[in-house]
Amino acid sequence: MLKAIPYPSQEAEEKLAHIATRKMGADPSLEKRVFEILETVKREGDAAVIRFTRQFDAPSLGEDRLTVREEEIRAAYDEVDTNFLDILRTAIANIEAFHRQQLHPSHFMTKPDGTFMGQMVRPVSAAGLYIPGGKGGETPLISSVLMNGIPARLAGVKDLALATPPRKDGTINPYLLVAAKEVGVTRIHKMGSAWGIAALAYGTASVQRVDVVVGPGNIYVALAKKLVSGEVGIDLLAGPSEILVIADAHARPDYIAADLLSQAEHDPLASAVLISTDRALAEKVTDSVRDQLKRLPRCDIATEALERYGALFLVKDVEDAIRLSNRIAPEHLELQLRDPWSHLGKIEHAGAVFLGDATPEAVGDYFAGPNHVLPTAGTARFASALGVENFLKRTSVISYSKTALERDGRAIIRMAELEGLGAHAASVRIRLEG
Q: Looking at the 3D structure of the chain, how many domains does it have?
């Protein structure tokens, strides 16, 4: 299943090229279908959203039930257990504490000549969180509610909308409803897939449009976000999940195997890669993966992912491992090394880095504090985790005094004339000439 491949080698290059094919390709027919859904919602509004929802999710959903009512949320609190609430509130506190450090205030500067400049930092007015239903609503993605909602609330977004597909009976999982309420979501709409994204982006009679749409989803959701980008802001176009583990002889093979499987179980397109300096360790990891798979509920999914996009690369030293990792730019990077801290500064491209044997990727998914919405498919070369800044906009402020304009005016005129923009130059010249 996981065959050890020496790196560098031709075989390694072929494997890397195959893993790279996981990037979300442009399927013209599928993109056309999503575009048609968006246009239908834009044209027909609520009627289209209800029709799609009845067709794919809840056959008897009433038009008056598109938005969750307060009594549904109150009932949800009666259905969840107190242990869950304790866990949820602790996770929220951890995530809030981390993301609060991302808040940057407006700033201004003045000069003796009377020049005033600055930047006003303001939140967007409304943000939309898309949360997948998860197996018909029976496996609610609570962590996604936290990771998408908390940064928006800390940014100061006043209108926080959540869209999620309803269960067959038209209800929303109570655990998801409670999580949404706890993070400060102000409205919840029972709509999924591309039509849910369309309603958030364009607005309908029942769904007020938002300024930013964030959150995970299937290929229909990803393409819908791509197509509405520009109409609204989006977080990123996330591809299938991925993990890369760098390990030396010090590492525990059973830990590595468990962590590789934690991503492989997501999706048949998920990628799980080990880069190791030790062949004996690599062989033990392969054995442990095979053994742990037998006890995994999502065994079939994980097996397919490993067979298609799993890899085990053998390198001569940790330096080579890090160079290969930087080339791949993984979503999740684990450093299971004797001294991981000494190598942290060499990591150039990764969505998130997990250091040491006691830090499985799952702690970042749910509880530690940093965001789990991360760049995938090599985009960590230029993209970052979701954060407070995704819900903020910056407005420049400029005020020149007459003295400052007289000092800089001729230079501004010269630059404008070089660009062939006479009216720009004239707008300064008219002030200089009185």
A: 3
